[in-house]
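Why predict the complex rather than its parts? Because the way molecules touch one another can change local conformation, and only a joint prediction can capture that. The input here totals 265 residues.
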Amino acid sequence: MDLGLQDKIAVVTGGASTIGKAIAEGLCAEGAKVIIADMDEVQAERVAAQLCAAGHNASFVATDVGERAQVEHLAQSVLAEHGRVDILVNGAGWTVNGLFLDKPVEDWEREVAVNLWGPINTSRAFAPSMVEQASGKIINIGSDAGRVGEYQEAVYGACKGGVIALSKALARELGRYKVTVNVVCPGLTLPEKSEDAGSMSLWHSDSPQSQIFRNQETLAKVVKRYPLRRHGVPADIVPLVLLLASDQSSYITGQIISVSGGYAM
Ligand SMILES: NC(=O)c1ccc[n+]([C@@H]2O[C@H](COP(=O)([O-])OP(=O)(O)OC[C@H]3O[C@@H](n4cnc5c(N)ncnc54)[C@H](O)[C@@H]3O)[C@@H](O)[C@H]2O)c1
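Output of the joint prediction:
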């Protein structure tokens, strides 16, 4: 199937690592021009350089999606350079697992800033140009934690639940302008190479999640809760994102789709 993504302008937040990186690579492979917007400037530059070295069209803009002024600057610079934005993928995310009663409030503030304010800020910054051009694809990377409620992920899950409601509301408001808004919800998704797990800011090295990853016995127990009996890898998420970014999905909006081996149904 020709997805028709050649020369489309795509912004991928969180595109410097794991799932966002795989999405940026997938979009590039389809011929899109990808702008990685990530607060990890070093890694974002490295990924953009790797993509360019492979013959693709990629660049980066260091951006903290929780900071509205930085997101506005991102939108201005992308629109100044490319004149339009066709695809916005909100992949940036951050969390630290922990019981609601134990977690420091500073963690909640950062979780809300990245996971909820991030997609609000980027949608506000990019949707006007999509409305004006009467086309656009917004794809929010949610989480099954936002669908089912997850132990030790109360505020993160609340943000992802908020992203689901935000996406449905925007789908209703923007549909008349042919702008679609959908949510892709991963379940447990780990990098193909275990050494890359250390670089996941979502799961920083001393977080409980990374302990799970290091302990094969615990990981095996977790995976048993998935009907397909394995955890996800970034490549599992990419095909659905590409479909939702293409005009092949022009009649799909406001949908929440899990890519999680059947974890949430
Ligand atoms: N990995 C999983 O198991 C899993 C499960 C469900 C949902 N998700 C979601 O998938 C998305 C990608 O997660 P991942 O697993 O690739 O994590 P990751 O930590 O590997 O990547 C997250 C990226 O977001 C960037 N980032 C963090 N805060 C930012 C900010 N304020 N502004 C801009 N960039 C910021 C990081 O620098 C990093 O490049 C996230 O939205 C996450 O919530 C992941």
